[in-house]
User: What shape does this take?
Amino acid sequence: MLYYWLDSPGGGDTIIFNEVFHICVFSKALLSRLLEKIPQNGLTNGERRRILSTDELNSPGYIVPAELRQQVTLTTLDRIYNWSRRNSVWPMMFGLACCAIEMICTAAARYDFARFGFEVMRPSPRQADVMIVSGTVTKKMIPQIVRLYNQMAEPRYVIAMGACASGGGPFKEGYNVVAGVDKFVPVDVYIPGCPPTPQALLNGLITLQEKIDKESLKTVRWYQKDPVLDIPVPVLGPDLVDPRRYAEIKAHNAMLAEQAAAISQEPKDENPA
Assistant: This one.
């Protein structure tokens, strides 16, 4: 069995996680033996302990005693946390246009993205980890997409699949099409193509896994003190209005009103030539 260790937040003994995430105490004697294997180089025990909690724990410079190599491996909390998440990313089960057919094909037996931990497609946003925007995003559909994104729990990710979701595609100048879903929700991975092949979608999913591998508990937004605010749902009227631009729209309307008032107050020439 492999054990993963990290410093206890409250100090004292170091604790470890086994592979089924049961917590037990890692003896100070064993920790001391591990610390002895790290070159001193003028470092205190506390500094050497911090070295063991960096992202380079698995490099050859840190030696585990021979008698423990079959039972102990060194890693970081970030790595074991990201390892568990990257292999259980559940997509939301919905599609918008022709790209959705390619997404369905990727989930079927020939390509089978279950091999990478994406097999559980959830029809509920509250149980999904990643939104694959697969197809043309119309102004009528974007309010529903934003609403579904807000209902997803953190950590959540978005993949823009295909040219339409990424930038509007061949319909970019259309009166009813949004020129890219990233105008309203943050996108983590863009997949080019019209439509992308199943291989391209698999590559995008693997790219998302690589991004998850690089995340840290110290910097991810869902562990910060500030709350993660919902994105205002766009309003569909005569045209699509983003509530985040209300202040800009009001300022622009006020400027137009001032210009109109200034024009109306200009003296008129009663005797035109």
Remarks:
- The beta strands are 3-6, 14-18, 23-26, 130-134, 157-161, 189-191, 235-236, 240-241.
- Residues 252 and 268 are 27 Å apart (CA to CA).
- The chain has a mean pLDDT of 78.
